[in-house]
Write a structure and sequence with these properties.
Blueprint lengths: L1 H27 L3 E6 L4 E4 L2 H6 L3 H4 L10 H17 L1 E10 L5 E11 L2 E8 L1 H15 L7 E2 H6 L1 H5 L6 E7 L3 H8 L1 H14 L5 E6 L4 E7 L1
Parallel strand pairs: 6-8
Antiparallel strand pairs: 1-2, 1-5, 3-4, 4-5, 7-9, 8-9
Length: about 220
């Protein structure tokens, strides 16, 4: 009997040591780790949730994980999870979580299914996504004015036209006197004039800078 008790205590000590090592490992990473049920109830999280999103484990455990997912990403997230349950895993799924102060941050997830639990690891890629959005913006927009570039209008006219309902109106505008302003008051004043055109326009319309030589513009909006 005493030998069995000693063996039991040894097993308990080993489990405690392994658990301590695991907790230390999880405390080092900045990635989010969580375990939740198929219905979304959170079972366990690591300390990185507080560092990244401001949630302590006491505020998350028992809560539904879908409550802190951005509403725009909720359907896609639920669908992705249901698909991962079928195949047992999911790779490189991106969605946004809402922090305790209301900020939406992007995370890329890897998911594994074990039994009736979902084990997920998420990496914060918010900075990467912001950089990508800026690159996409400047790929299609004029860096000085924020208007669409001529090249984008030529190669992807549907991207500008699709947001508007038919019928459409198209107006070509020629800005005269810009060279005189540049020569008389400097290019900074000329640049301010160009930016002012965009800011004073209806920015919900498609305004494209066609030519920077004689400053021709195309404005597209619903009639």
């Amino acid at each position: 009997m005493q030998v069995n008790l000693q063996n039991d205590q040894m097993c308990i000590d080993i489990l405690k040591k392994e658990n301590t090592e695991l907790q230390r490992f999880l405390s080092v990473t900045r990635d989010l780790f969580c375990v939740f049920t198929y219905s979304g109830q959170i079972v366990a999280v690591n300390a990185s949730w507080k560092e990244s999103l401001g949630y302590s484990d006491s505020r998350l455990v028992g809560r539904n994980i879908f409550e802190i997912i951005a509403k725009e990403d909720l359907y896609a997230t639920k669908f992705a999870i249901s698909e991962s349950v079928k195949v047992g895993e999911m790779e490189k799924f991106i969605n946004r979580l809402i922090s305790s102060d209301g900020e939406a941050r992007y995370f890329e997830w890897r998911v594994k299914i074990f039994g009736n639990r979902i084990y997920a690891a998420g990496r914060d890629i918010s900075d990467l996504m912001k950089t990508q959005e800026k690159l996409e913006f400047y790929h299609t927009r004029d860096s000085l004015t924020g208007m669409y570039q001529r090249s984008f209008l030529v190669t992807s006219p549907e991207a500008i036209l699709l947001p508007y309902k038919l019928p459409l109106s198209a107006i070509f505008v020629d800005l005269n006197g810009l060279k005189l302003i540049n020569d008389s008051y400097g290019h900074d004043q000329g640049d301010e004039l160009l930016r002012g055109i965009y800011l004073s326009s209806n920015q919900s319309s498609g305004l494209a800078r066609i030519s920077s030589l004689d400053e021709n513009y195309l404005a597209i909006s619903t009639i």
